[in-house]
Amino acid sequence: METLQRPTPSLRLALLPCALLIGLIVLNVSLFGDSASSGPNQIALLLCGILVAILGHLYLGLRYREVETRAIKSIVLAMEAMLILLIVGALIGLWILSGIVPTMIYYGIKILTPVIFLPVVCIVCSIVSLSVGSSWSTMGTVGIALLGIGRALGFPDPLVAGAIISGAYFGDKMSPLSDTTNLAPGIAGSELFTHVRHMLYTTIPSYTITLLLFSGISLFYKPAEFNINSVQVILSGIESMFSINWLLLLIPLLIIILAARGMSALPALTLGALLGGAAALLFQPARFMAADGTLMVWHERYILLVMTAYNGFVLESGQESLDSLLSQGGLSGMYDTISLILSAMFFGGAMEATGLMQRISAAILHHVRGAASLITATIGTTILVNIFLAEQYLAIVLTGRMYRLEYRNRNLDARNLSRALEDGGTLTSVLVPWNTCGAFAASVLGVSTFSYLPFCFFNLLSPPIAVLLASLHIGIKEMAPEAPPEAVDA
Q1: Quick one: 327 and 340 in the same domain?
Q2: Rounded to an integer, what distance in angstroms lies between the CA atom of residue 108 and that of residue 143?
Q3: Which domain holds residue 124?
Q4: Statement: the pTM of the whole predicted model exceeds 0.90
Q5: 260 and 129, same structural domain?
């Protein structure tokens, strides 16, 4: 989004709305806890966005209406994310009704044990995400089943969510099918597979440490709620409430294959939701029985499917643990998340339209002295954009544009910039509650961002490891000397 023609704002003016937003967010979290993103944070972001537009009018001479209009237009960048959220909500409800999620949980509990659970979760999500190129699709499909298995085995939801997100973002970062993996080298001016290979410098140590941490936790952690009897109760409950059939697993497998072959997330997930509805009619006939024991007429079955897609699935088995495990999903359950994204994009759009975000970045660039500090500044800027503009694509695009010339002036190859954009922009987006990625993960997994954040080891480790390697001048590539022009025969 282009900024308006305006005088350069002062750094103090640029930091004012950021400081206010952080203050309000901290206040909301302290007062509302995990419910802070169900209303209070939306209000904080809207107020701060309006404040930015007013400051642009009063101190920079911009027309308030024009700043507001450009801020609203920035919301278009998040429209696909919000549509995917709605579809994922419907998919989760229908996949539970159809028995897909219960079947995945049922077989997962039988196969997995607490001793190997967390590293296996991370590896499985890594493989799926590498295959489909999407952390969102991974979290919204196998992620919800793995979370259910972890709960049955007695692991806290935030810990399991951290393993899911770490694996999902490993694949999102490294897969050639991922949009961010293609976007970063495109903005920086490097080549896709050169970019992927160059990311191994920071990815291998971060991922190795992540797997070691999850292995250590799984090995020594004794789930307080785990005992074989409680697991058997859950397995028996699933068997009594759903028809378990391995054929149901073909639906998520098909969606993974279609995504891996290049189908966009929105049509792939929509197909998955429709197949879930069809599977419910075929495999779970008991769910479509009327009060008198006869099969519902066609329009009653249609109503049940539509309302499950909209409001989610509600299980009433009489077992509290099983009911909480399988009462999830629904398009309407995503509304809080969508309002958070809308508010965040409005604030971020106003910050960019008035030039306040660019002023903060310029202040950072002023202190850059060498390659290490330039990479540190790049990663730091992507984190700031993720926080204040609330969108990982903006973090990659804006930061890449800001620093591309600086890398060239310092004789640093473009692959250094593209890797830094991924280490900071892609991986930290899910750690911000009001960022589109953080809001999606919290909504789909049902775990607040600040709860799962400490356990997203891969996402937390990658930026500091990238800075450390840069300071040691490891994995820093200088620009190749230009080839001399070919001699022309006389």
Answers
A1: no
A2: 12
A3: 80-333
A4: no
A5: yes
